[in-house]
Design goal:
The chain is about 25% helix and about 30% strand. With about 100 residues, the chain is α+β, with helices and mostly antiparallel strands. It is globular.
């Protein structure tokens, strides 16, 4: 099943995408205006090659987990927008507005 919903980050709304997978944690993606935070299922190296602003969090099972998790990796474009490894997902999204 695929769920799309609004995810509140500070005073902004992001688009949240959740894909339920068989015998697996869900695939999660939260999209802001200039970039997105993704779970570990998605590949940061490919995001880098595509030149997008993306950050990766891992060990997440819900949108709340994405917001609370520490960023493990970020593309150079995300870093130019102020995203740093170690910040919370919510802070990374704030910098991607």
């Amino acid at each position: 099943m695929i769920s799309i919903m609004s995810v509140k980050v500070y005073d902004k709304s992001c688009l949240g995408l959740r894909v339920e997978l068989p015998d697996s944690p869900p695939l999660l993606l939260v999209v802001a205006e200039k970039g997105f935070v993704m779970c570990g299922f998605l590949n940061v190296d490919v995001a880098e090659k595509l030149g997008v602003a993306a950050a990766v969090v891992s060990g997440v099972k819900s949108f709340e987990d994405v917001l609370d998790a520490d960023v493990k990796a970020a593309t150079s474009r995300a870093k130019m927008l102020g995203v740093e490894v170690g910040v919370k997902g919510a802070e990374a999204l704030k910098r991607l507005f």
